[in-house]
Amino acid sequence: MxxxxxxxxxxxxxxxxxxxxDITARDGLPDNERRWAMASVAIGVSMASLDTAIANTxxxxxxxxxxxxxxxxxxIVNVYQLAMVATLLPFAALGEILxxxxxxxxxxxxxxxxxxxCACAWNLPSLVVARLFQGVxxxxxxxxxxxxxRAIYPSKLLGRGYGFNSLVVAVGFAVGPTLASLIxxxxxxxxxxxxxxxxxxxxxxxxxxxxxxTQRSGHKxxxxxxxxxxxxxxxxxxxxxxxxxxxxxxxxxxxxxxxxIFFFLLLRRQAGHQAPMLPVDLFRRPLFxxxxxxxVCTFAAQGLxxxxxxxxxxxxxxxxxxxxxxxMTPWAVLxxxxxxxxxxxxxxxxxxxxxxxxxxxxxAGLVAMILMPHHPSVIxxxxxxxxCGIGFGFFQAPNLKAIMGSAPPERSGGxxxxxxxxxxxxxxxxxxxxxxxxxxxGKNGEALALGLGASFAAIACIASFSRLFVAPxxxxxxxxP
Length: 481
Known about the structure:
By secondary structure, the chain is mainly α. The protein folds into 2 domains: 31-212 and 270-469, Growth Hormone, Chain: A (Up-down Bundle); 223-269. Helix content is 78%, strand content 0%. It has 18 helices and no strands. Helix 13 runs antiparallel to helix 18. The termini are far apart. Residues 37-475 form the Major facilitator superfamily (MFS) profile domain. The chain crosses the membrane at residues 36-55, 75-94, 103-124, 130-152, 164-185, 191-211, 223-240, 252-267, 287-313, 325-345, 352-372, 418-441, 447-470. Keywords: Membrane, Transmembrane, Transmembrane helix, Transport. It is found in: Membrane.
């Protein structure tokens, strides 16, 4: 398969309707086509989610074999995250213009080729460059995958679709460390990336066959706005990391000023635009804004837990990396159980109610983790992790439906971009706060991190319940600049 040719073909040519049903004339896809389309989306989303977390576990091994210092090797993780956060909203906006299908296929192709380049990397700079392109590919997939669900599922089954998508994202992120540990126990680190190649090829073939064509918007793509967006979000992520590690205050202030300047330029540039890349028009809808806030706080809580707990299990309890992965598994398993259930319930009950119940459970689970005995048994750990998984799994699908449902259909791309951006901003801020906790508390940093996680979950719980008192804005309502 000529990947470069395929990418060019998807961007520059029209797609024949016979291969990809046009959903503008009907509500969702038929059952059989829907299964194939979701298989493609699920493979792409799971690969992107796994590679967000999987490199963290392998970082020491990669640094050793590439003869890189620990400080330099951190860029293997950081550049992927930077590329994703900085380009999510541009790809979401481009999806509204070119169709979500084309952007998703482009992302799958680029991610697959970049994964092969990662597996073949011969030194640190080559791996960092490959990870940069891998992050861009993942961003294209994640930026439009939620918008695609509106085209794949009929409206009466959207909750079920969001539940399945939430399951894939949450489990992919949660099982990343476990899967990485298992692969590293039998093979070297390049195989962490090589396994994406056959999966990516399958996802591309399925996507070409089954993903639907979506209606395109008439507005133009503004490259200057893209540059402002990349500068704003890129500097924001750098600021999180450097502030957490307490680097030189001059560098932190420079990054903060740079981020503020780019955000100011971005907002001024897109003022009055019908479909702004940073969708400030959607944030004027109270339900949308509260749902995005709920997502950021909840994923910050998840990031605080998932980065700090491995240190506790290995450094304090003396568990091996593989054992640590299995101790984290109950969270992922219960998310897998609860996400489809919550998705179905969200078709019948308010997302604010379901999300609030789930987040109260998550906060209670994190508090229970703090109160563990000094020498906890496996059961002591697992039931607490299970409670956290139940709460997290019960929140995600209803919140996803609230975000997408509060945006008009023609703005699905902007809403989808905010879904992914909220998740990554939350996870990045959570991970940065873990570093800060260990800097100020030493070996007790994980307790402080879990306490912050419980606090973020409680704030998200309040934001979720408050949505019960907000009237939705009709999609036909005019959005004034």
